[in-house]
Specification:
Elements: H1 2-35, H2 42-58, H3 64-87, H4 92-117, H5 125-131
Helix pairs in contact: 1-2, 1-3, 2-3
Length: 134
């Protein structure tokens, strides 16, 4: 009886030693997935899935809810990072198109202003003398 109690205590300690890093990796990958760093968050999420999977399948009766929670966080981080990395289009191309449109518009405005305020020969010579243009 005493031997099974020690085994149970040591398995609970080992389970926690697996679940705490798994939780940290899961939370880090969740934060990276929300920020939108492409597929990079899959790496720490996979580490979290592996650690919590070991805890889930090897130490079945210890911290069942916590193990499922950590596993769920890691899987959710993988799903979010895949969704954001592959399905959502990057807005960089749209931003570049907008920038080129803004530059073309600015060039058009500059040319219109140069045309409007450049020295114009359409003013008659008699009027030039009265306004002070020589």
């Amino acid at each position: 009886m005493e031997n099974s109690g020690k085994t149970q205590k040591s398995s609970k300690i080992i389970t926690m030693l697996l679940l705490i890093p798994a939780l940290l990796f899961g939370l880090i990958s969740m934060a990276l997935a929300v920020v939108g760093l492409g597929l990079i968050p899959i790496v720490p999420a996979m580490v979290g899935i592996i650690l919590s999977g070991i805890s889930f399948f090897v130490y079945k009766n210890n911290y069942r809810f916590f193990t499922r929670l950590v596993l769920g966080i890691s899987i959710l981080a993988v799903v979010i990072s895949i969704f954001r990395g592959l399905i959502i289009e990057e807005k960089v191309a749209a931003d570049k198109n907008f920038d080129t449109t803004v530059l073309k518009t600015q060039e058009g405005i500059d040319s219109d202003l140069n045309d409007a305020f450049s020295e114009d020969d359409s003013i008659p010579a008699a009027k030039k003398d009265t306004i002070g243009i020589r």
